[in-house]
Amino acid sequence: MSKEYKIPTMAEMAAAEKTPEVLFWVGCAGSFDSRAQKVSVAFTKILNEAGVEFAILGKEESCTGDPARRAGNEFVFQMVALQNIETLNLYKVNKIVATCPHCFNVLKNEYPALGGNYEVMHHTQFLQSLINEGRIKLKDGGAFDGKKITYHDSCYLGRANGVYEVPRSVLQNLDNELVEMQRTKTNGLCCGAGGAQMFKENEPGKKRINTERTEEALETGAEIIAVNCPFCLTMMSDGVKAKEKQESVMVYDLAELILGKM
Amino acid sequence: MQQIIFAIVTFAAFGFAAKQFLKIRRNILLGKDKDISDNAGERWKNVLLIAFGQKKMFKRWIPAVLHLFIYVAFLFTQIELIEILVDGFFGTHRFFAEPLGALYTVAISSIELLSVGAFFATLIFLIRRNLLAIPRFQMDEMTGFPKFDGNMILVLEIILLIGVFSMNGADKVLQSMGAEHYHMTGNFAVSSWLGPALFGGMSESALIGVERFGWWLHIMTVFAFLNYLPISKHLHIMLAFPNTYFAKLQPKGEMENMPEIMNEVKSMMGLIETDPDAPMDDLPEFGSNDVMSLDWKNVLGAYTCTECGRCTSVCPANITGKKLSPRKVMMDVRDRATEIGKKLDSGDMQWVKEELKAEATTLTKENFDDGKSLFDYISNEELHACTTCNACVEACPVLINPLGIILKMRRYEILTLSAGPGDWVPMFTSIENSGSVWQLPDARDKWAEEATSKN
Questions:
Q1: SS3 content of chain A, % helix, strand, coil (to 5)
Q2: CATH code for position B231
Q3: Nearest Cα to B316, choosing from A31, A205, A50, A98?
Q4: Cα A35 to chain center, whole Å?
């Protein structure tokens, strides 16, 4: 790591009369969840290293409203969404990258109807473009080299938005064997967190969804479960712990895996 | 004589069926208006690829191939069916044979080969449903009428094929005997040998009996089928086409906006001017609690559903033993729409909303209230188990969207009933008050400050 590590805010950028190339949308998990914070750090380190001029909204960012809307609470959704759009439009934001596919989906697909039109990318797509443009240099030898990886499709990047190949091609840049789970891509099984399930107890049933999915991931014999979503990260990590495999199987976001190779 | 009986039966069958289909149409239109007139090109492409082309069926090869036989046989049999109608009305025999010549032999032979395929496919489907106990056909919602319905269709299919082959087989033997009216049609791929094998050596009058029996059995089964369709899951043979045409084209992840709430919040935030004298709805209802508050496209989906259960078999909630089954959601919407339709047909004024009873003269969908709703069919527990993962939407071979209905009912529960899982309340309050899903004392950018200060 050579360059000075900075995470500027849009307010600071605006004060310096600068317009960043991209706004990094951190999201609630990326801001407050201790595990997901590490992904935010990893991603911003990559952005720094790649020389991307970016900024975050910092204290001016609010929840996109995704879980409220999917739970059925349109009022709460509209309140935060309209407020976010006010802020984004004030800063004349054009391009947004999000490390959370739920934020990505709402920003990209649902804010336009409310008056917020931006080019929105998921961080796996952004990483792919940085690699393609040669802005990310991957070194030989990395912390995760040689370990078998299985990739878990998040519902909101996968089925919700049809992005299946980009994260896989990002992973192809690593020196790892990529193995697929039984249910993959369009048939990928949910981790159990979406639709505001993250914020409530499970309905009565035989099994937790994350247990079902983790068992499937473990069956591949992979040592790393790669995810692209902070909620999948929590769910899969919990699943691995429940199976007492946390010593031998790690759950990482794609950004962390790329950073390990830089 | 045969012509007169045929005409009466045909008009009765079509007339009665038309009446029932109009009721289905009425039931679908119980749903709210929704304009879906955009992107005609893309929509026709969906109809061609997904309805005609069965593209999504091929996510599962075995049923897809079996289904394809029945489907293509069904399409081709229409030629024979049209001929039966012409012959029936005008007293002709195999009207198309002469004008089409060799092409006729090819057409009927193709139908016969496809029919043999369809016959075996139907047998395998019966075995899959009843002996192999494929899990998606054995779930709670697949008992009673739905189970009977699934088998009934297959049995009708077999009866139809018996009709086709008795008719063609006996005809071939009659042709070879030089019987009057039974003109030569060339060799049919199957009945040219099946006919002699089954009916060879029978007398001419017995053969004519078999041929007429097959002919009448064929057309009567078609009429029975036509009139059974409206109460059956089998409506998909027609509704799959409009349902794929009107299917959602936006990314699956996109939820429908609620402009009425958006505008209210905008005016609260001072983003738009509102007319302070504008009349207020005294009791606004948001989301859907019944067929009338869904839109017609949701109800069309319900009548299109053929209960194949692919949605339920990929639902993460269902797989892990929760009560939710997307197929059941679709079946419930259809059953409720049918129930409302029947009550409307009765015209019974007891179903008029209490407060409108004094002034109402007829029962309409606008003043209808039987004290029930979709929540009597679909429980909160089912709605709360959904992870909105879109697996059900992805799985449906005819682009039905169970998730759209689940989300509308969640909206009703939260916005209109102010109910819902208690666990969600802190999340709502926290988003509203602090702009985050968790109520936390830390600043939103604390992570960034800490990360950069460590450097």
A1: 45, 10, 45
A2: 1.20.950
A3: A205
A4: 12
What is chain B's mean pLDDT, rounded?
93
- Count CB-CB contacts under 10 A for residue B62: 9
Q: Which residue of B has its CA nearest to A75?
A: B261
Q: Please give the pLDDT value at position B266.
A: 94
Q: Which residues pair with A209 in a beta bridge?
A: none
Put simply, the answer to whether A71 touches B262 (Cβ < 8 Å) is: no
- B154 with B23, same domain: the answer is yes
Collect the ranges in chain A with pLDDT lower than 50: none
- Domain hosting B96: range is 2-245
Best CA proximity match to A46, nearest among A94, A101, A1: A1
Percentage of residues in chain B having pLDDT higher than 70: 98
Close Cβ partners of B48 (under 8 Å, ≥ 6 residues apart): none
A28 touches chain B (CB under 8 A): yes
pLDDT tens track for B343-370: 999 999 999 999 898 888 999 999 999 9
Q: Phi and psi of B307, rounded to 5°?
A: 60, 35
Q: Report CB contact under 8 Å: A159, B391.
A: yes
User: Six-digit token pair at A157?
Assistant: 């990047």
Pair (B290, B355) in one structural domain: yes
Test A79 with B265 for CB contact under 8 angstroms: yes
- Asked if the C-beta of A187 comes within 8 angstroms of chain B's C-beta atoms, the answer is yes
Q: Could you tell me how far CA A178 lies from the centroid of its own chain?
A: 19
CB pair distance less than 8 Å for B269 and A82: yes
Q: What angle do CA A195, A199, A204 make, to 5 degrees?
A: 80
**Which residues in chain B touch residue A37, judged by CB atoms under 8 angstroms apart?**
447, 451
Does residue B167 have a pLDDT over 90? yes
Q: Which candidate from A73, A80, A205 shows the least CB-CB separation from B322?
A: A205
Going along chain A from its start, the domains and CATH numbers come out as: 10-131 (3.40.50.1860), 138-259 (3.40.50)
Identify the three-state secondary structure at position B343.
helix
Tell whether the torsion through CA atoms of B190, B85, B51 and B294 is positive or negative: negative
Q: Which of A93, A150, A146 is nearest to A120 (CA)?
A: A93
Q: Is A202 on the interface with B (CB under 8 A)?
A: yes
Of B314, B388, B444, the CB nearest to A61: B444
CB contact under 8 A, A41 and B451: yes
Q: Say how far apart CA A210 and CA A198 lie, in whole Å.
A: 11
User: Is the domain of B218 the same as that of B84?
Assistant: yes
Q: Least CA distance to A208: which residue of chain B?
A: B320
Residue matched to tokens 């955009």: B38
Query: Cβ of A159 under 8 Å from any chain B Cβ?
Result: yes
Asked if residue B289 lies in contact with residue B309, where contact means CB atoms within 8 angstroms, the answer is no
**Closest by alpha carbon to B59, among B393, B306, B402, B387?**
B393
Cα B39 to the center of its chain, rounded Å: 23
Instruction: Tell me the chain B residues in contact with residue A9 when contact means C-beta distances shorter than 8 Å.
Output: 445
